[in-house]
Specification:
The structure holds two protein chains of two kinds. In chain A, 45% of the residues lie in helices and 11% in strands. By secondary structure, chain A is an alpha/beta fold. Chain A folds into two domains: 34-156 and 313-381, D-Maltodextrin-Binding Protein, domain 2 (3-Layer(aba) Sandwich), CATH 3.40.190.10; 158-309 and 389-428, D-Maltodextrin-Binding Protein, domain 2, CATH 3.40.190.10. In chain A, the strands form four sheets. In chain A, strands 2-1-3-11-6 form a five-stranded mixed sheet. Chain A has a three-stranded antiparallel sheet with strand order 8-7-9. The two termini of chain A are 37 Å apart. Chain B folds into two domains: 8-47, no CATH class; 67-300, Orthogonal Bundle (MetI-like fold), CATH 1.10.3720. Chains A and B meet through helix 1, helix 3, helix 10 and helix 17 of A and helix 2, strand 2 and helix 13 of B. Chain B: It is found in: Cell membrane. Chain B: Its main location: membrane. Chain B: This is Sugar ABC transporter permease. Chain B: Residues 74-293 form the ABC transmembrane type-1 domain.
Chain lengths: 430, 304
């Protein structure tokens, strides 16, 4: 009898919880007004919370907060940093408890989940925010239901980083931006064979999704998630071609296998001077600036397949739709999206700002590298593949991509397993 | 003691005398147990019939989660992995019996020092321990493969190849379960009366014979307790696996434990409903295994 009453009670709780499900970015709820409302005046007094995940970018964010403070001396901004690995677990708990920070970082894989549940403020009416100031594909990434719900903070595209000296030692010409897959493979092979005794690889292998697998799959005519977000592209012939290309280099001993790169991450191999080529983003510039190979490296445009397939992604600044400090949060968010804040960010070398026309601030901060090509790539780059619950299938990728690329097992068979599981996750999305 | 004829009255009176006092004393504990143990278990059962929204809210979906469990190929592999791990870690108990009796030898010099040494794994942080072992098991620079190379063996990828990874984790699990076992067995050993050894000596039993005929039988209650605790800990394998395997490990799909699957479903994929089913499966397996052990103990555990 007791258990029955408890069950009924629980059902009541469940029903009450179900009512929490909302739809559409900024449709409000939770007591606070869904409207953005007026922005705080310069003499307003308030305090707001701001949450980010990258400690390396914290100094730049602090400089931005200080600059904001000059304009709004009465508004305190408290910044908290949560490590990326647990950032979105934490954000989800905060959202469930209706306790999101006033302003916070969001990324492509997680944007739609929050926007579709009405947790992100619609920024259409935000004073000082003009979508035209940012690359179109980034604005598209952060638009839900035709409403912009986050401001692009920075962007990254993929290029081909290379180590001049290692290539020279192996008798390979530096990449000129026109390389095909075959040329990339041949160059890698030559370096690996010539410099094997020094434990140096042509390319460092690995299974980086954004920097390696996504671009190659797209270049081969494959896809990651279909446009209607209903089907996985992991069993598409194009995607399989990319997998075969990667597995082929491992099987032929040209690139290190996945068991090896799990213990020796590609990025470490490259920055230690143990790999000559690496496809990666402009975020590497700040990291490689402090590496031992700093003087020997540069970047070139990405290798080319059947079609263009660069991938663009960038972090976004978002505001809680349920916040109770919206005027102050609007003022801060508007400043974060301004040219001034973008230049502070660029000059700190933190990331390439998304605000159009501020790239030079980032280039000047990291003078050793040709970073312009990443900006050029942004024009034709495809949006980062996402769906409503991206992080659910990202985890499946983490589990099965190593097996697809590195074995054991058949490439197509494991890829089919990944595609089926991902289809299951996509089917659960509403 | 209590015969019906003896006294209905005194018994009733005694009951009244106890009154609510037992409840007052037990209450705080019972409330704690109810809130932190019984309610979560009940909630897990309820959740297992539901599907969760990403930000709270549940909807009833009947037995769908259970149906999914039967089809999931990860589950059968995780059950197998967890069992293998548990069995290997259980092998640490005989080892602990030997070490404990060596440490408890009369007149052993530096006995305290050895005890501290053997207890060290228990006071080290599991994650730190895992990271150190990960280095020890490194394919290229690890201590283990270096030692193997001395005898001409090309060591495997311990942490990133299927099966080897499970073996490596089991070895570390066994190693870190030793300290507690040695402490408990040490206490058990000190409880064995010295007369028994004297009597055995008089009967002409050597050290080995004494070990198997006196020490081991009288230690069986401690060994039984340990095997229950170790098995339960074994079925809950998570942190070691998580820290030693790291991110994007090609062997992960073949090395996942049940609790790891539970974690990834509940917190990474936000499938709390399905995760509840996995939690109940873990509960059922631990329950069945413990029951089996209690059944079997009658055959080999000697209580004085």
């Amino acid at each position: 009898m007791t258990s029955r009453r408890t069950l009924l009670g629980a059902a009541g709780v469940a029903a009450a919880g179900g009512a929490l499900a909302l739809s559409g970015c900024s449709s409000g709820g939770g007591g606070a007004s869904p409207e953005l409302g007026a922005m705080a005046a310069k003499n307003a007094k308030d305090s707001i919370s701001f949450q980010i995940w990258d400690a390396a970018q914290a100094p730049a964010m602090r400089q931005i907060i200080d600059a904001f403070h000059e304009d709004y001396p009465g508004i305190e901004v408290t910044m908290s940093i949560a490590a990326y690995a647990s950032y979105f677990e934490r954000l989800r708990i905060q959202a469930t408890g209706d306790d999101l920070p006033d302003v916070f970082w969001i990324n492509g894989p997680n944007f739609e989940l929050y926007a579709s549940h009405g947790l992100l403020q619609d920024l259409s009416d935000l004073e000082g925010f003009d979508p035209k100031n940012y690359p179109e594909n980034l604005i598209a990434l952060y638009t839900y239901d035709a409403k912009p719900c986050a401001i692009p903070k920075d962007f990254d595209t993929i290029g081909l980083w290379y180590n001049r000296e290692l290539l020279h030692r192996a008798g390979v010409d530096a990449p000129d931006g026109s390389w095909s897959w075959q040329q990339y493979r041949d160059a890698s092979e030559q370096v690996t064979r010539k410099l094997r005794s020094d434990r140096i690889w042509g390319n460092p292998g690995g299974i980086e999704t954004q920097a390696y697998i996504y671009p190659l799959a797209l270049q081969a005519g494959g896809f990651i998630v279909s446009e209607d977000k209903r089907t996985s592209g992991y069993d598409d012939p194009g995607t399989l071609e990319a997998f075969d290309f990667l597995r082929g280099m491992i099987d032929d001993g040209i690139a290190p296998d996945v068991r090896y790169t799990t213990e020796n991450p590609p990025q470490d191999l490259f920055s230690d001077g143990r790999a000559a080529l690496m496809t990666s983003g402009n975020w590497q510039a700040a990291v490689l600036q402090d590496s031992v190979v700093k003087e020997q490296i540069d970047a070139a445009p990405l290798i080319h397949g059947k079609q263009e397939g660069n991938v663009i992604h960038g972090i976004g600044y978002a505001m809680s739709a349920h916040g109770t400090h919206k005027p102050a949060a609007s003022a801060f968010l508007s400043f974060l999206g301004s040219e001034k804040a973008a230049r502070i960010q660029g000059a700190a070398g933190a990331a390439n700002p998304a605000f159009i026309g501020t790239n030079d601030s980032f280039f000047d901060a990291l003078p050793g590298f040709d970073l312009e090509l990443f900006v050029d790539a942004a024009e034709t780059a495809l949006p980062y593949p996402v769906s409503q619950n991206t992080s659910a299938w990202n985890q499946l990728e983490e589990l099965l991509l190593p097996k697809i690329v590195g074995g054991p097992g058949d490439v197509a068979e494991t890829a089919k397993d990944l595609a089926d599981r991902m289809d299951g996750v996509l089917a659960d999305e509403s | 003691m209590s015969h019906e004829t003896a006294a209905a009255a005194p018994r009733r009176r005694r009951r009244r005398a106890d009154g609510w006092w037992p409840l007052v004393f037990l209450g705080p504990l019972l409330i704690g147990i109810a809130v932190f143990y019984f309610w979560p278990i009940l909630a897990t059962v309820i959740n297992s019939f539901t599907v969760f929204g990403p930000f709270g809210g549940r909807t009833f979906n009947g037995l769908e989660n259970y149906a999914q469990l039967l089809q999931d190929s990860f589950i059968s592999r995780a059950v197998l992995n967890t069992l293998i791990y548990t069995v290997i870690v259980l092998c640490g108990i005989p080892l602990a019996v030997c070490i404990a009796s060596l440490l408890n030898q009369k007149g052993l010099r530096f006995a305290r020092f050895y005890q501290v040494l053997f207890f060290l794994p228990a006071v080290s942080m599991p994650v730190a321990v895992s990271l150190v072992w990960r280095m020890i098991f490194n394919k290229e620079f690890g201590l283990v493969n270096w030692a193997l190379s001395l005898v001409g063996i090309d060591g495997p990828y311990w942490v990133t190849a299927p099966w080897w990874s499970l073996l490596a984790i089991s070895i570390v699990g066994l190693w870190s379960s030793l300290p507690l076992a040695i402490i408990i067995l040490g206490a058990g050993l000190r409880g064995i009366p010295a007369e028994l050894y004297e009597a055995a000596q008089l009967d002409g039993a050597g050290t080995v014979r004494q070990f198997f005929s006196v020490t081991v039988p009288l230690l069986t209650p401690s060994i039984f307790f340990l095997s229950i605790i170790t098995a339960i800990n074994g079925f809950q394998l998570f942190d070691l696996l998580f820290a030693m395997m790291g991110q994007a490990n090609p062997a992960m799909a073949d090395t996942q434990s049940l609790v790891y699957l539970f974690y990834s479903e509940a917190f990474r994929q936000n499938n709390q409903g399905y995760a509840s089913v996995i939690a109940l499966l873990i509960l059922a397996i631990i329950g069945a295994f413990t029951l089996l052990q209690f059944r079997l103990q009658r055959r080999w555990v000697h209580y004085e």
